[in-house]
Amino acid sequence: MVRYAAQLENPSKSALARSEYTRTHFKNSREVCHAIKGMNLHKALAYLEAVKEHKRAIPFTRFHGGIGRTAQGKEFGTSQARWPVKTAQFVIQLLKNVESNADDWTLIASSLNIFKPTKPPSNDDEPIG
């Protein structure tokens, strides 16, 4: 059995997916997960596709030192936002995995909401330089 970070109240009505050792910045991953929390699955996929095309931005709320300002952040009440394309691509793959798991477990994928996305841990053991 795979260990997940989130403990679910009703596992029979939930679909899960996880990834390990993703080569993304954990600060970007935290902000992307925070941005899609509470969204519908299809709405989150459309949002992340728009982020990849630089049509919508991810608001940076915690790790926002040195982040430039953009007008696309007004949607979220902040001016500091970015377009973390690589992280968005990893999260899109993960959400598509959740969608296929929901189909396998006979859940309705259009009614799934993102409940508890968690960022991957930082890889402190990787060499720098």
Tell me what portion of residues adopts beta-strand conformation.
under 5%
Distance between the termini: 36 Å
Q: Could you give me the name of the CATH homologous superfamily of the domain at 24-111? A: Ribosomal protein L22/L17
- At the first level of CATH, the class of the domain at 24-111 is Alpha Beta
Lateral arrangement of strands in the main beta sheet: 1-2
Count of helix runs = 3
The count of DSSP E runs of length 2 or more, i.e. the number of strands, is 2
Gross CATH architecture of the domain at 24-111:
Alpha-Beta Complex
Helical content band: 25-40%
pLDDT averaged over residues:
86
The main β sheet shows up as: 2 strands, antiparallel
Q: Please write the string of helix (H) and strand (E) elements.
A: HHEEH
The CATH topology of the domain at 24-111, please?
Answer: Ribosomal Protein L22, Chain A
Low-confidence stretches: none
Computed Rg: 15 Å
- What would the principal axes of the Cα set say about the shape? globular
Keywords: Ribonucleoprotein, Ribosomal protein
GO biological process, one term: cytoplasmic translation
Protein name: 60S ribosomal protein L17-A
GO cellular component, one term: cytosolic large ribosomal subunit
Structural commentary:
With 129 residues, this protein is mainly α. The chain contains 3 helices and 2 strands; from the N terminus they run ααββα. Helix 2 (41-52) packs antiparallel against helix 3 (85-104). The longest helix has 20 residues, at 85-104. The mean pLDDT is 86. One of its GO terms (biological process) is cytoplasmic translation. Pfam families: Ribosomal_L22. Keywords: Ribonucleoprotein, Ribosomal protein. GO terms for molecular function: structural constituent of ribosome.
